[in-house]
User: What shape does this take?
Amino acid sequence: MEKKNEIKLFEDKKVRTLWDEKIEKWYFSIVDVIGVLTESVDPNAYWRKLKQRLKEEGNETVTNCHGLKMLALDGKMRMTDVADTEQLFRLIQSIPSPKAEPFKLWLAKVAAERLDEMQDPELSIDRALAQYLNLGYSENWINQRLKSIEIRKELTDEWKKRGLKEGIHFATLTDIITKAWSDKTTKEYKILRA
Assistant: This one.
């Protein structure tokens, strides 16, 4: 499992992160995020108390958080409680902090948008188009992207008709197709694009 440790800055404060290449997921040091949001003099103590309170409430997020080795202040690799993006957002909701408030408002807005999209799926298409335009993509590029999504759907529908299962079968076939035109696996191509 290849992992890359990095330091990210949030308001000039360091947050240790780790990219797990195998599962393609970011992990964040919980103590560092707590330190940024709460400005606590002892973020470790704050996390211990928060963890205890959340466990008593039956919060599964804390149970699912685990430790990974990250570079500590003393220059040594030490076990640190980490959270993936989803877990981190759930933890932020439990931290009373003015700095956490923008995160909380954003999460509430996203949740409301998703509920609206469940009622009217066309809203998600409109949102995607607006996002692509905001990111600076041309209308031509957006149209090509939408066509590629449609073609991908037709292809996977055909695979399903022929008895292939989503997951490993689809991943293997996608790798074969990607390798044929780019000479790279899907994972290698994603890294190249990033």
